[in-house]
Amino acid sequence: MSEKNQEIPDLETVSVNKSFGDFRAVKDVSFSVPKGSFFSILGPSGCGKTTLLRMVAGFLEPSNGDILIKGRSVVNEPPNKRPVNMVFQHLALFPMMNIYENIAFGLKRRGESESVIKQKVGEVLERVGLPGVETRQADQLSGGQKQRIAIARCMVLDPDVLLLDEPLGALDLKLREHMKVELKKLQSEFNTTFIYITHDQSEALVMSDQVAVMNEGIFEQVGSSRELYYNPKTAFVAGFVGESNAWSGTVEQVKKDSVKIRTSSGFTLIAQTNLMEQKKGEGIKKGQEVKAFVRPESVRLALKAKEISSMENRVEGIVGNVLFNGANSRVLVQNPIDGAEIDVAIPQTGEFASLAKGQTIHIGWQHDQARCFADKSGEK
Predict the structure, then answer these.
(1) Per-chain mean pLDDT for the chain
(2) What is 296-365's CATH number?
């Protein structure tokens, strides 16, 4: 085993649970985060991600399970004794203090000398790209500058782990896009482990080394952004990460690595299944209720039927709407079989620049562009 593989994770949780009365907010969550990683927890509101982060920070106690930082259990330690710091959505900068005083606050409480404080504040401001702002007030800074000051205030204390609770949520769209890049740069600059929670998949996918997709208190899947996007392991991940067309139906036929599905409205499609599961006899069975997903960019658009004649799934539909958004433009194609609209990405070749509502269009996709999962929506 290599030395790298033997490194103790910066953060590890072992079968962590949290219940509020009869409600289990977090259910047996175990994961580990290597040193210097950007790890995101992605999920919808109410999935348990903030509860999990607050347990790591020490603001909540787990009902059971263990939390280790650098291999040492911190479950019984108060927040101020843990080698972690936290950046909140609303940043919580002290309005009555200037920037120097904001950043120096934790160092002063720790008993550092004034000369050390001055040196560390200057160094951390350099690293976040804001030298010379010590005497300014927080309300004199832009939203992005405030964000960096909030991070500087945490990083000056040299935490082993920095926890970020939806810190971009209060920013406007353009600034959020900019700060996604800035945050990744800052994490690399400090080489500190970031644990980032968000409901915004774009934030998680762009910045993270690893992403955990959380749903109803559990981690559905943990992996790189590419793994989650191209190889989702559950129906929830397939539907939550990225945009997808979705169908529910019943399996009519099972082959080696594909299934034929008929929806209740009579539309049939062929989708890919997990080949390893099929070999083990654990895969999709004939007659089973399933969900299938196809991404808009995986569907081929054609003006003539012969252009998609080799596709296993083909639809001649009507343009319902063209959603122009530059390079991200899409067309909603109405399927005449069931009346549903299929979301299709428009290639930026110029060939489809004149698409108009009511126009007949042809779309198609191969079975390996569609993912199929057992439908567990009715299970409790």
Answers:
(1) 89
(2) 2.40.50.100
